[in-house]
Amino acid sequence: RYKLIHFYYNIDQWEFYDMQADPNELANQYDNPRYAGIIKELKKEIVKLQKEYNDAMSLEERRKLTDKYMLKYEE
User: Fold this and answer.
1) Is the whole-model pTM more than 0.85?
2) What value, to the nearest 5°, has the Cα angle with vertex 45 and ends 28 and 58?
3) Tens of pLDDT, residues 5-41
């Protein structure tokens, strides 16, 4: 029913959509207090899955890695 998206790399942006109310994902509800509890639970699930899949890379490490490869392809 819900979709929580985190764009990690160079923008560090969150988006949240209620797929039942907005199936075309037109209205980002991330800052809507109505969904704060659901977002909190989904973030906990993300952390759980990161541990389960041994995905421990920090946001800063991700940025450095992305920057390294982006620069490589721009040359």
Assistant:
1) no
2) 85
3) 988 766 779 999 999 999 999 999 999 999 999 999 9
DSSP string, 3-58: EEEEE-SSS-EEEEEETTT-TT--S--TT-GGGHHHHHHHHHHHHHHHHHTT----
User: 56-67 in b/e burial notation, b at 16+ Cβ within 10 A?
Assistant: eeeeeeeeeeee
Q: Which long-range contacts (CB under 8 A, 24 or more apart) does 54-60 make?
A: 59/8, 59/12
